[in-house]
Amino acid sequence: MSTVRPQPLAEGRFQLLEVIGEGGMATVYRAFDQRLQRPRAIKILSPAFAQRPALRRRFLSEAQTMANLENARVVRIFDMGEDGERVFIVMELVEGGSLVDRVRAHGAMPAKMATRVTIELCEAIHAAHEASVIHRDIKPHNILLTNSGELRITDFGIAQVQQDDKAGMTRTGAVLGTWGFMAPEQKTNAKQVDARADVYSIGGTLWSLLKNDTPPELFMADAEPEWYEGVPDPVMEVIKRSTRYRREDRYPSARAMADALRAILPLLPDDPADTPDLVPR
Question: Which of 71, 84, 186, 236 is most buried, with most CB under 10 Å away?
Answer without folding.
Answer: 186
